Amino acid sequence: MTSLAATRRRLALRRFWAEFRAHRAGLAGAVVLLVAVVLALVAPLFISQDVTSVVQGTGAKWAAPSLAEPFGTDESGRSILLMVWWGSRTSLFIGFLAALLSIVIGAVVGIAAGHFRGWTNAVLMRLTDWFLVLPSLITALVLAAILGGSTFTIIMAIAITTWPSTARLIRAQTLAVEARPYIERSRALGGGHWHITTRHVLPNVAPLLLASTTLEVASAIVTESTLAFLGVSANKTSWGTMLRASYDYGAATQGAWWYIIIPGLAILVVVMAFTLVGRALEAVLNPQLRRKA
pTM value? Predict the structure, then answer.
């Protein structure tokens, strides 16, 4: 039995990979993400955290991109290349954790609302609707400003304002799963709430959660960059704080276009890569989208 289950999993993974490879844009996005994550992980092996210190600049101020400094320098003579590289750790870390926390909250609320129905569904959906009507960016900005701009606070602010859309999506999928005949058979055989939600509902909504997580990471990175640019983040170096610093020190008036464009391009490329991968995963894992394709 174990061997049969393992064989089925291997076949499912091969089928998934074959279908995912057919989406060239998603595959390209996955390659970009792999490179970005690897670079972020190995950054401490090549550069020091002191790169964020204004006293560590060794180059000329506002130096344009050259062979010595491929991405130029900032107002303190610090290397933009090293700062973007180190900043990827902060941006990706916040993006992944905020998206993961948002997905967990949304999944728990959505499955509970779809499974228990009745007053539980009514209370959870009204709570979800209340969060949905709140302007997410303004709410995250207020939370970050009140609680402080630490990394933990930024992650919590993003997660608290982005989970409702996931909750509604998972609730709808849960209702569809629980309408299937084998759920009734499971109940008739004595299956309890925990058994049904963990053994039947969760595996069926997991593919949707995977695709949603990928898209949520992209949204979280944009939100973190926006909050940092607005000045509520205490992180020394993320792509958003670099854009804020370029504004504060007048990079545009200095003609230092590289200080503005390069962090912006880093955000754009990574967010686009996450979006491409998320769309490809949706097409592969969602049978309705797969049939339309």
Answer: 0.86
